[in-house]
Design goal:
Number of helices: 9
Order of helices and strands: HHHHHHEHEEHEEHEE
Number of strands: 7
Largest sheet: 5 strands, mixed
Number of domains: 2
Radius of gyration: 30 Å
């Protein structure tokens, strides 16, 4: 479920309309001075609006990342700033810009601070509530997606035992002297075992995913007429993290099947993990015979899964040039 800009604006306008009505009712309990009360209520909201929208990035960058102490330390100057802004409005700006109206800073600094703190707390509460709602919605969508993926895998897994038994028989027929054939049969067997048995969980060890990709890369490299300009490099502490299974596979498949010039192939794949950030880059040349295909279904599936699973912690960039195709993926893995 996506929130459009129109829905976001409507939601915020609704909340501020309710706030305006409540404060207007509070300010006019004892007496009503007409249009002046509307103006006063609107002006009174300015430091509150400022407090709320300065609080939102603090919630995102600090509170949601469990940096509570730093969040509280920054809230204190924020409250002071908004209180000062209130008195700036009513003691300086109003006399200059609205001379025909006489407004006084009726409340004390501590009372204004209480208003600001209440609105900061409400904005935090609303943000957490909305985030929880969308998280549950995202989990539901992810479960549906996983069920579809599992169903697709089940349809494609035609007698795994038959496949493994056949591979073992071929391995035996290859003979001990044919080490290269045996080596690739082992890679194929490991790749099949991983994709059939080890990817049925929401997250898998990144080192297992890398091992699978390396085996897959080696097997696909055999299909190229010249594999000298084809490489897969990995670096960093990728052994320490988890990742959604088979998320990177379509990016590697894309190098071999969608664009690659098989007669004169150039493929560079680099995987690195530093400071909990995965950086995965694939770069390949494009065939001069077939027309360019912009990523195909595989990249679209990667985009959808990346958004559902990682949200704003994942970023995918695609650079489609006349002779080269580059995919740049970054994921923050710190919560996995």
């Amino acid at each position: 479920m996506k929130t459009t800009p129109v829905k976001k604006i409507s939601f915020h306008l609704t909340l501020w309309s309710v706030s305006f009505f409540l404060l207007y009712s509070l300010f006019t309990v004892d007496y009503n001075t007409g249009i002046a009360d509307y103006i006063y209520t609107a002006l009174f909201h300015l430091p509150l609006v400022l407090a709320v929208y300065l609080n939102l990035p603090l919630i995102q960058s600090l509170f949601l990342k469990k940096r509570y102490l730093l969040y509280l330390l920054l809230i204190l100057p924020l409250v002071s700033f908004c209180v000062a802004f209130y008195f700036l409005i009513f003691q300086v700006l109003v006399p200059l810009l609205l001379a025909k109206y006489y407004f006084i800073a009726y409340y004390t600094p501590w009372q204004i601070a209480q208003f600001v703190i209440v609105y900061l707390f409400l904005s935090l509460l609303f943000h957490l509530s909305v985030s929880w709602f969308f998280l549950k919605e995202k989990e539901y969508q992810l479960q549906k997606e996983n069920h579809l993926v599992q169903l697709k895998n089940l349809k494609s897994q035609i007698s795994p035992h038959f496949l493994f038994n056949s591979l073992n028989n071929i391995y035996a027929l290859a003979g001990p002297e044919n080490t290269e054939a045996r080596n690739y049969l082992t890679k194929l067997s490991d790749a099949l075992r991983y994709i059939i048995y080890d990817t049925n969980t929401p997250f898998v060890p990144l080192k297992n995913e890398v091992e699978y990709l390396v085996n897959y890369f080696a097997l696909e490299r055999l299909r190229l007429e010249n594999g000298e300009e084809v490489s897969f490099q990995k670096s960093g502490k990728y052994q320490e993290f988890l990742i959604a299974p088979l998320l990177l596979l379509p990016l590697v498949e894309n190098c071999f099947f969608v664009h690659c010039n098989r007669k004169e192939p150039f493929i560079e794949i680099n995987l690195s993990v530093f400071d909990s950030e995965l950086h995965f880059i694939t770069h390949n040349n494009k065939t001069k015979i077939l027309p360019s295909v912009s990523g195909g279904v595989g990249l679209e599936n990667v985009k959808k899964r990346l958004e559902m699973i990682y949200g704003n912690r994942g970023r995918l960039e695609i650079k489609d040039e006349p002779e080269n195709f580059t995919v740049d993926l970054k994921i923050n893995l710190e919560d996995q």
